[in-house]
Structures are given as structure tokens and as C-alpha cells.
Design goal:
This protein has nine helices and ten strands. The chain is α+β, with helices and mostly antiparallel strands. It has one domain: Jelly Rolls (Sandwich).
Amino acid sequence: MASSLMKLGTLSKADREFYNTNGYCLKSDFLDREIIDKIRNEAKELFAIQIRNNGIELNSLEDKDFEPALYELFRIDFNSFIGGAKLCQHTFSMHQLAVSEGLMDNLKHIGLEHPVVCVKPLIFFNSPHISKIEGHYKTPAHQDWRSMQGSMNSIVVWIPLIDVDRNLGTLEIVPGSHLRGLFDSVEDDWFRNIPETEIPESEYVSVDVKKGDVLFFSSFLVHRSGNNTSQNIRWSMHFRYNDANESSFIDRKFPHPYKVYHPEKDLVTPNFPTKQDLKEAYSND
């Protein structure tokens, strides 16, 4: 494991007390920016393969070149865009960070006796230019526990990959809402949302974050995305963890509500591969 993955800050007793009271804890300059850049560049490189395969000009991975090219890929070949988006979720560096010793130690500091991954780590690239519904770039008010249904003290680690201000649609949270129970929610095109009538607008607080910051929050904390009014992509990561030693999680037999991860029974690409395809793939030439 790269040494840079170990360069995390350490949560204190005061951080844990603040977290228990407010449902979140924001730590500035907590993570080495080098690994953040590496993760984002790995995602860009995967997209770049499909961008160039579609004949779209891409002079560099700098945002000024990359983002317009990605928008064009989304427009002309949605399946290639989706393939790249899915493959980005499997990069080594992101998964190494998600299970790194430094991060696991901090989860223990904040109260998880036996941290376990709830669902695979996710990297997000949110923009109205690469979304078909609003919920793909601007999530409504919700509690993550509604989809996790894990331990009572389950936690989300939200990591920006760039500086995120209100123009990019920073996270908006309701401090202390983790102690107000599981809110009623309604099904929508995205997943489930908490109706606007449940929580006054005045209770939401915007959380501006910079690259290197880490936001720890309870899965019961009500939060939503701000509106990305810029021409740029909001890049972030989202890790979720349960506590295998939490009594209700044990009594409920470790429920896991993610039931759709299974292989496709039919060939995704019909009539592929042929014998000739395999001979060429394994050729010594």
C-alpha cells in the first residue's frame, strides 16, 4: 500500500463528542492531496479511453480540456459514458483508501468498534451536463440509513476530490437531525426523499469543503446536494461503514438490503468473443 494512503489526520475525543451531538464532523486538511489527485486522475484516464475511442479531441486531462470532452461523450455515446462511469468505481487507489488502516483507526475513534464496509466505495462526478434526471446531480433531502439499514451507528465518509463551494452544489446538512429518528420519505425517480414540509429551509447548513478535507457523518443525518450552477463537475467520494459489534445489527442478523448485484445471464455483447478473437488476444506476436 502506498505510504501516502497512511497520511491521514486523527480524530480526537472532542471530535467524537461534537459528532455525537451534531451528527457530523468536518476535518480540514485531513487527507493527503496527492492521493486525492491520484484517484481523480485514474477516473479521468478511464473516461479518456472511451473519449478518444469515440474520436473526441482530448488534449489533456486538465479540467478545461477533459470536462467538455466528457460532456460530448455523454451526448454522442451514452453507453460508453456509462461503461466508464462504472469502471471508475473499481480503481485500486480508491479502494485502498476506503480500507486503509488510517481510515479504519479513525472510524474506531469516532465509535465503531468493528468497522466493516457496508457497500462498495463510490466516486461521484455530478453535473447537469452528464445527468438524465435531476437526482443524478442534485440529490434531495434524505438519510443514508434508509438505503443502508445497517448498524445504528453506521457512518458515511464523504470526501471532496476538488474544492467544493456553493456554485458547485456543496453538501447541505441539518445538524442534530440524526437524533430525530428515521424521517418519513417518499419514493421518487432517484430513490426516496424527505418531503420539503418535514424540515424548514432555515435548518439546512451548507458545508463548503476543500480538497484534503473529510466529512464524517451519521447515516441518520439529513442532508442533500446543493445546486451545481457552474459549468464544472463536482467530484467526490462516498464510503459507508457499519459496526459489526453494534447490538441491534447483530440481533437483526446483519441485514444487507443491496440485493441487485448479480451477473448478466446473457451475453452483454452478442456473439463475442469468437475463437479468432481469443487467438488474437493471446497471440505472442
